[in-house]
Predict the structure.
Amino acid sequence: MKPNISYTVNHDLCTGCGICSSACPSHAIAIMVESGRFLPKIDDDLCKNDKGCHRCFDVCPGIGCNLIELSKQLQSETSYEDQYIGKYEKCFVGYSNNKELRYHAASGGLVTQMLIWLLETGRIDGAVVTAFDNAQPLMVKTYIATSRNELIQAKGSKYAPVSLNKAAKMIKEAKGARYVIVGLPCHIQGFRKQTVRDKILREKIVAYFGLYCSCGRTFNLTDFVLKERNIKRNELTYFAYRDEGCLGSMVAKYIKKPNQKSSLSISLEEKTYKERYQSYYHPLRSFFIPKRCLFCIDHYARLADISFGDIHIKPYSDDKIGINSIVVRTPKMLNWLLEAQKDNAIYLSDLEADTLNKSQIMAKRKYMRMGAYLKIARILGNKTPQYDIYLPVNNLFKYSIEYCQTRIQQFIGSHKILWPLIKVLKSKAPIE
């Protein structure tokens, strides 16, 4: 008998995507924040796994995914295939022609601009997006955006866990019939697995927008960054991991609250803190990575209809306003993209797949190290995800050292009492 989602949690394979919760017909799974991550909690009294229900396990991307098999089914008309990118129709660089959106999005604003164009031209009824929750500082919320303003509110990167646990229910209950899912590779894998047996969901989701992902981060990343800079959550009025141009800066606006013991009337002034993205982020890139992300092979979101990300290679990296790279995987999406360009909503320029791969070094690194990482984990007695992609075991000694170093850093990052060590070790953290 197949297990339920507790297998994924017990073996530290959970990506926190939340898809299992919406797939459970008994409503036995709640998504909770624990140890800086979203994790599913099962109500054993409601769970029907002992009666043969294992839908939560079937949709789980944490246990792995048959990427090649599913891409053949979903992208059968696609013209090209690349070892790292997967199946694709065409690659581009581009950006939104709305200058403000382009400047304040994480890259070139193409995700938001394309969704706005699709919505305003009547091609979709809404999109599942994620934004920071004003009611809970630095937590995230997922919702169906049905207006330009709601889409703009979700712009930019969220270097924090994102759960789409309510997305399927929202789509099913929504009056419209055409929705887009915006998510990381693991989100899209989970949704693709779920729609195999969920006809309503399959018919109402008309496109998947994937976001390149090197690896996720826990909520502890933000806690650490704010603590180092003496900024408190309850003082924040605005926060963005990446704002103001290509790659951009962390921007935190906050109001320092007076000492409660002071009886003086103090005029409160909003302060702004800015720091370049690479300056605060890169040195911390191993300490706050969930373990499961070490075993991810899907950098480019292979099962999406279109994937978006940065492009870190000249001459594109000279752009300081904002620029995206794009992988288009289906003829339908290519037509939409070209129509948006014709309407002057976006700018596009052709991009070679080889150039894209050179700019996304993590795509190749994941492939080169993954066979060794999986073997090391199994030798240590750990359960690992299963893929239908051939993963050679390269340089086992080198990657054994790298794997152990990263696991030590993850342990430090997950225990706040050890955070003082990060100040000493962070400059030595490997760039993921």
Summary: The mean pLDDT is 91. Residues 229 and 236 are 13 Å apart (CA to CA).
